[in-house]
Amino acid sequence: MRKEERRRKILDLLSRTDSEISGDRLAKILGVTRQIIVQDISVLRSMNYNIISLARGYRLIKKNDGVKRIIAVKHSKERIKEELMCVVQNGGKVLDVIVEHPVYGEIKGNINVSNEDEVEKFIGMVETSGAIPLLSLSNGVHLHTIEAKDEETIERIVSNLDRKKFILK
To answer: Which residue stretches of 47-143 are H helix?
Structure first.
């Protein structure tokens, strides 16, 4: 299979799902190495395809007519699950986490959770990986980009986060 055809197939596979597809799975489907997939993904990104890398694999971000807002929050690592659940239970999606680092500047990590099962999986990965959550680098202060279907839903999410003392004031 030629590389152009393989890249079209990667886009096709990613566009047909809202979940992630691992590099190993793509490699197996397409009969190439994982390293070839990594290179193909880099080329596709350079062509302005919005493909993100998550711990569970690659996801193509499709154009969404929803509303996005960046919110500033502060809490301990023990409250990560509660915060994420508050957003998804109120109809939102947490796209990322952003912290300000004194040496590196802005550090951003993809989260992309939109339901309780995805939150549980994310928390499970945080707990079993031994990785330090990004909020630990900034004394709990961080930003999230949240997305919802409309401004009313965003306002409900922010109000509930504020009621639970997550919103940084």
So the answer is: 80-89, 116-129
For 153-159, the CB contacts below 8 A with 24+ separation are: 153/67, 153/90, 153/91, 153/92, 154/67, 154/69, 154/92, 156/90, 156/91, 157/86, 157/87, 157/90, 157/91, 157/92, 158/69, 158/71
Spatial distance between the Cα atoms of 7 and 89, rounded to a whole number of angstroms: 36
Better-scored residue on pLDDT, 80 or 1: 80
Q: Is the per-residue pLDDT at 47 higher than 90?
A: no
From 77, 63, 89, 62, select the one nearest 161 (Cα to Cα).
Answer: 89
Phi, psi of 107 (to 5 degrees): -120, 130
In this prediction, residues 14-40 reach a mean pLDDT of: 93
Q: pLDDT at position 65, please?
A: 63
What is the spatial distance between Cα 23 and Cα 52, in angstroms, rounded to a whole number? 12
Do the beta carbons of residue 95 and residue 146 sit within 8 Å? Answer: yes
